């Protein structure tokens, strides 16, 4: 099952208002994309320290799935997740209804919902954390029309907004079908037919990333100036 199908299944029927399938809108912000420094987590020296808490409702094994998913960021980027002590701004991982996150730093406690039964997979954890870091879905990026076609006739009624483009800062990186932020070709389909088609290869299967890609890593490093 691809990333979007896991999220769609977990989020079916939840009452939390979402856009693009798993993003909680910040009603205090305008519609501008999260590309400004005010939306980024602060950098101290060479690293971006992101305080976190993991809810007590998770078992040790479940918590370890989250922790191990986060450690990949330590290995390849300057993001460092640290246990929250007294920090005011932090990510709070909890088993809510569904899989969802805000985009970018929100200030104060910032919830990331990872439902115990449905969201505890490496790709889903990393997907939601990338939202928290400021990233949108791949198929929503500003230049997507050069790479994919959206078949609106195949989209489930009520889910059309999940395919709206965002004025993203693509950071000089190419469109990436292997990104953990890329939804599958049949995402939110009403009839089993593709909603997203790769223009260069209409038969291409995508949305099956099991963890962050090389380009996901490159974007984090560029956005957060990890090499400087």
UniProtKB/TrEMBL annotation:
The entry's keywords? Hydrolase, Metal-binding, Metalloprotease, Protease, Zinc
GO BP field: proteolysis
The entry marks the following residues as binding Zn(2+), namely 127, 131, 137
Question: So which cofactors does this thing need?
Answer: Zn(2+)
Pfam families hit by this protein: Astacin
InterPro entries from the UniProt entry: MetalloPept_cat_dom_sf, Peptidase_M12A, Peptidase_Metallo
What does UniProt list as this organism's lineage?
Answer: Eukaryota, Metazoa, Chordata, Craniata, Vertebrata
- Its recorded name reads Metalloendopeptidase
| GO molecular function terms noted in the UniProt entry | metalloendopeptidase activity; zinc ion binding
Q: How is the cofactor bound?
A: Binds 1 zinc ion per subunit.
Q: Which Gene3D superfamilies match?
A: Collagenase (Catalytic Domain)
Report whether Hydrolase shows up as a keyword of the record. yes
- Which SUPFAM superfamilies does the UniProt record give? Metalloproteases ('zincins'), catalytic domain
**Enzyme class (EC, first level):** hydrolase
Q: Which residues form a coiled coil?
A: none
Record EC number: 3.4.24.-
User: Peptidase M12A domain location, by residue?
Assistant: 30-228
* Active site per database record: 128
């Amino acid at each position: 099952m691809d990333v979007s199908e896991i999220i769609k299944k977990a989020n079916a029927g939840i009452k939390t208002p979402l856009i693009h399938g798993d993003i909680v809108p910040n009603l205090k912000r305008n519609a501008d994309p999260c590309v400004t420094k005010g939306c980024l987590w602060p950098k101290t020296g060479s690293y971006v320290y992101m305080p976190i808490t993991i809810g007590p409702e998770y078992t040790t094994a479940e918590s370890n799935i989250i922790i191990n998913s986060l450690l990949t960021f330590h290995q390849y980027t300057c993001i460092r997740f640290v246990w929250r002590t007294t920090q005011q701004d932090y990510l709070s991982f909890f088993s809510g209804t569904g899989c969802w996150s805000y985009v970018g730093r929100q200030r104060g406690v910032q919830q990331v919902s990872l439902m115990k039964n449905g969201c505890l997979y490496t790709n889903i954890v990393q997907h939601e954390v990338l939202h928290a870091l400021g990233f949108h879905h791949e198929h929503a990026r500003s230049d997507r029309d050069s790479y994919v076609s959206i078949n609106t006739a195949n989209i489930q009624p009520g889910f059309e907004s999940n395919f709206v483009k965002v004025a993203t800062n693509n950071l000089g990186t190419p469109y990436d079908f292997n990104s953990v932020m890329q939804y599958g070709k049949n995402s939110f389909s009403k009839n089993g037919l593709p909603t997203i088609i790769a223009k260069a290869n209409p038969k291409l299967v995508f949305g099956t990333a099991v963890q962050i890609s090389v380009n996901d890593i490159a974007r984090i490093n560029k956005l957060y100036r990890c090499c400087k």
